[in-house]
Amino acid sequence: MKQLTRRDFIKTSSILALPISQSSFGSETQDLEQKIIINLPSYSLDLINFENGKFREQYSFEVGIGKGSNGRAPTPLGNGFISDKREKVIFRYGADYPLLNLKKGDIIRWTNTFDENGKPQAYKMPYNEIRGLGMKIKDQKTNKEITSCVIHSTTDEFTLGTPCSSGCIRVGMNDMVKLYDLINPELKTGNLKNPIPLNILYDLVEFRYNFFKLHADIYNKPQDYIEKFKQLAQLTNFSDSFFNYSKLEDYIEEDKQVFKQTHEEILNTLAKPYPKNFVPRNLKSKLHKTYFFKELKA
Length: 298
Fold this sequence. Notes:
Layout: E1 9-11, E2 14-16, E3 34-39, E4 44-51, E5 54-66, E6 78-86, E7 91-93, E8 110-114, E9 120-124, E10 132-139, E11 145-146, E12 150-154, E13 163-165, E14 169-172, H1 173-182, E15 190-201, E16 205-208, E17 211-215, H2 225-235, H3 245-270, H4 281-284, E18 288-292
C-alpha cells in the first residue's frame, strides 16, 4: 500500500481580536449564535460566535479548497448553512489501481503523506479522529443547492493553503476536531437543530488593522485590486489622499505576476506522483502579499 502514487477521494487557531469584516455578518445578527465565513483566496475559515446578537469571539483556521483545474472542481461560491455533524467520515478511491488490487470505491486504509518538514510518511487512516461538517450551498452561478461539498479533516496537511480538493474544504486534523467541537457543542453527531449560516466568499483584498493583504486570483475571477482597496479604505474612514495609489498600482502589477507563477508551480507540484508532490510553506506564502499602511502613505 505504501507504493500508492496518488489518491483521489470520493467523500461520502487562534482567536482573533476582531472579525474579518463586520459587513460579512449581514444586517441582522440578533438571532445568530454562530456563523462561518470562508474566503477562498485567503484559504481561511472563520467561525464567529455571537452573544445576544453581538460579536463575541472568532476562531480562524487554514484550509485547502477545490482545485478548479486538472479535472477537479472549484469550491462553489455562495451562501448556505452547515446542516449536520459527521463523527465518522470515510475516504474511498476515485479510480482503479489494478497493480495494487484496488478498485474505485474501495475504502482507503493507508495515507501516504508528509510530516511538517516534508518527510514522507505512511500510516493507517485514523478514521476515529476524522470529522466532517455537511454543507448546503446555494451556488452563485447556477442558483442550485449543492450538498456534495463537505468540510472535513485531512491527513494531507501540506495541502492546506492550496487549491487541492475536488470542491470540499480541507482542515488539518487537530483544527478539525477543535472546529467540530465548537459547532453546536451540545451535539455530538447528526443533523443540527438550528443550522449555522455559511458564506463562501471570493475576496482578493482584505483589510486587517494597520495592513491589508492581496491574494492570488486562483479561480480566474479577476477583481480590480485598486478599486477594491479604495472601497475598503472608505469603509474604514481613510481619506482618498491618505494612500499613494500610483505606488500601489506598481506594486500590484508585480504581485500579480508572482501570484500567477506561484499558482502554476503549486498546481504542477500537486499533480506529481507521491512523494514528489509536497508543497512547502514558503511557496504557499507567495500566493499572498501583505502591505502595511505606512508603506503606502502619500
